[in-house]
Structures are given as C-alpha cells and as structure tokens.
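Structure first, sequence second, as always.
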C-alpha cells in the first residue's frame, strides 16, 4: 500500500504572515487540526497545529489576531511522497512522534496530508503471516503508541538520572 491510497488530498494551507486567528478559522472551516504553511511558490515550509495556536496565545498573552503563523509554526518538517510505502510513513510518524505528515512532490509542493486518523481508518484486522493485511491494526497501534508517548515523561527521566 502506498501513501497516495491513504492520504487526504484536501489540504488547508496558509502563508507565513497569516494571523493565528485566520489559521484557526481555516482549521475550523476545513474541519482539520493542521494547516500546511507554504511560501510564494507553494512549497511547504512549515506546519501549524491547533495546539500550536492555543499554546502561543496562552504563553504570549496576545490576541490571536496579533500573532503571525511564522512566529510559532514548526519549521522542522517531516514529509513523505505520494508513492512512498505506507510502512515508511508509519516509521517516520513513530520515530518523529508526529500525527501528520505533509505529502509533497519532488519540488516540495503539497499534494496531500496523511494523518494517524487516515491510517486508523484504513487499518484492517489480521495477523502477520498468511494473508496479512497491507496495513494491520498491530502496525497502526504500534505507531499510535509511539506518537502518544508523553514527551514530559522522557524529560523527567533524563533530569532525574
């Protein structure tokens, strides 16, 4: 199974100078929790989540209309391509502990987005071995567990050692 078979092709995008208020409205209207941030040539340069918006407003003590996406977006992107094997996308999500991956073409234009929710919806029952599904519940749950592992627990363990 390849990423293109699982990804959502409808991707909400914004520019870096979009306000958090406008980005939140894009998420609301698009029924999504992530907006891909694109440059003037429509290449993905970052990603912003609903959590990023909430934390920025709470920590900066400013209205969302006064904060630009570029101030809080994640610039460290993890992406995949439409023809990538779904298992490679799962590995990236697990290792990087991200719930969503922008799907880009060779020149960085966004073609879709794949989320853990998309993967869960496509997962099938079955065990590895005879007639194993291409995307199993086990593979999906392993990825979900890796993504959901608390970041704070790691920091606490490192600080107490």
């Amino acid at each position: 199974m390849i990423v293109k078979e699982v990804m959502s092709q409808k991707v909400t995008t914004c520019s870096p100078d979009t306000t958090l208020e406008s980005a939140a409205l894009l998420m609301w209207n698009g029924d999504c929790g992530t907006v891909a941030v694109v440059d003037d040539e429509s290449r993905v340069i970052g990603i912003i989540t609903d959590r990023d918006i909430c934390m920025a407003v709470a920590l900066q003590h400013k209205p969302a209309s006064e904060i630009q996406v570029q101030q809080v977006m994640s610039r460290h992107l993890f992406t995949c391509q439409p023809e990538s094997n779904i298992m490679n996308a799962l590995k990236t999500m697990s290792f990087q502990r991200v719930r969503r991956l922008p799907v880009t073409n060779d020149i960085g234009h966004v073609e879709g987005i794949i989320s853990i929710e998309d993967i869960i919806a496509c997962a099938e029952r079955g065990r590895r071995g005879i007639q194993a599904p291409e995307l199993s519940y086990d593979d999906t749950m392993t990825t979900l567990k890796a993504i959901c592992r608390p970041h704070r627990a790691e920091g606490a363990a490192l600080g107490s050692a």
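Margin note: The two ends are 42 Å apart (CA to CA).
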